[in-house]
Amino acid sequence: MDIHFFKYQGTGNDFIIIDDREGNINLTTQQVEKLCNRRFGIGADGLMLLKQKPGYDFEMQYYNADGKESTMCGNGGRCLVKFAYHQGIHKNKYHFIAIDGPHDATIEDNGWVYLKMKDVDGIKQYYGDFVLNTGSPHYVKSAGHLQKLDVFNKGREIRYSNDFAKEGINVNFVEEKSECAIFVRTYERGVENETLSCGTGVTAAALVFAHNEKGFNRIEVQTLGGHLAVEYDKIGEERFENIWLCGPADFVFSGKVSVGE
Ligand SMILES: N[C@@H](CCC[C@H](N)C(=O)O)C(=O)O
């Protein structure tokens, strides 16, 4: 069977997107894994299906490169909104449903997609580091000389440590550049490698480094794949609402791929 696919990327986090509004796409774990494989397939950090859902503009279904359906993907969500726009779904404000609940999104004049993330309640301290859920589970660790850090091995060590091995966790290393700017590198669960950017990870890192008491409610974030920003309202010490992940999301190429019988 041949499938028409579209390739998108958001700050270098790249995705295969398939329009499944007719509801006839049924891919196995092995098929998704092969499509995401950079030698035997199209190559991507993840795969998404755009589906129909009553009451929403669309539904987002997300799979990691290992072929398994996973939790929320921030950069993926931004790419899917741009894809929906390119497919003729034109809205001033998009309202879609993903595995972690409803999301709003807008496409700005400069092409950036602003994606509203779920509210975050509480950031847990973990031996001097931080653990939180921004739609996906994230570990946030402060790091100096981040450009030179061995993110693959250090991230993998935490991801497969006793407390996290079973469910998995995404591991973000963060270098503070100024009071309102950070540099983030992420080891992603389900890709089991460093990716060029991770949207829910960037969001998690920004919330950990949020200095609202000094009047900032926007953090600029540099990743290996480009620039993002995170906006938020900090409510007391524990809660974040009105969280927006903002950045570019672009079409790369499209084609037909064979997935066997
Ligand atoms: N790249 C993503 C995160 C995708 C999900 C993650 N790998 C997981 O399984 O938790 C993003 O941009 O948020």
UniProtKB/TrEMBL annotation:
Taxonomy, superkingdom: Bacteria
GO molecular function annotations of the record: diaminopimelate epimerase activity
EC id: 5.1.1.7
Subcellular location as annotated: Cytoplasm
Residues at which substrate binds: N13, N64, G74, N75, N170, E188, R189, G199, T200
Catalyzed reactions per annotation: (2S,6S)-2,6-diaminopimelate = meso-2,6-diaminopimelate
GO cellular component: cytosol
Entry annotated with the keyword Iron: no
Active site per database record: C73 (proton donor), C198 (proton acceptor)
Biological or metabolic pathway of the protein: Amino-acid biosynthesis; L-lysine biosynthesis via DAP pathway; DL-2,6-diaminopimelate from LL-2,6-diaminopimelate: step 1/1
Subunit structure: Homodimer.
HAMAP family: DAP_epimerase
Job of this protein: Catalyzes the stereoinversion of LL-2,6-diaminopimelate (L,L-DAP) to meso-diaminopimelate (meso-DAP), a precursor of L-lysine and an essential component of the bacterial peptidoglycan.
PANTHER family assigned: DIAMINOPIMELATE EPIMERASE, DIAMINOPIMELATE EPIMERASE, CHLOROPLASTIC
Protein name: Diaminopimelate epimerase
Gene designation per UniProt: dapF
